[in-house]
Design a protein that fits this description.
Length: 64
């Protein structure tokens, strides 16, 4: 796989992510309040889960 291919796939991924963010933003504009709240609580759960995983990993690395 050539370096050009790697770069191209990276650019494509960036473009897709950017597009997805734009779509998310336009969707959020048209969302109702309860949908927004549901999304917020979902994001909060994901964040807490991620943080819990991170602290768990940190504690493991400190023990060794």
């Amino acid at each position: 796989m050539a370096i050009e291919d790697v770069n191209a796939s990276g650019v494509m991924r960036k473009a897709r992510n950017c597009l997805r963010r734009e779509v998310d933003r336009s969707n959020r504009m048209s969302m109702t309040e309860e949908e927004k709240e549901r999304r917020r609580s979902r994001q909060r759960q994901l964040l807490e889960k991620k943080n819990a995983n991170r602290t768990g990993m940190c504690q493991l690395s400190y023990k060794t």
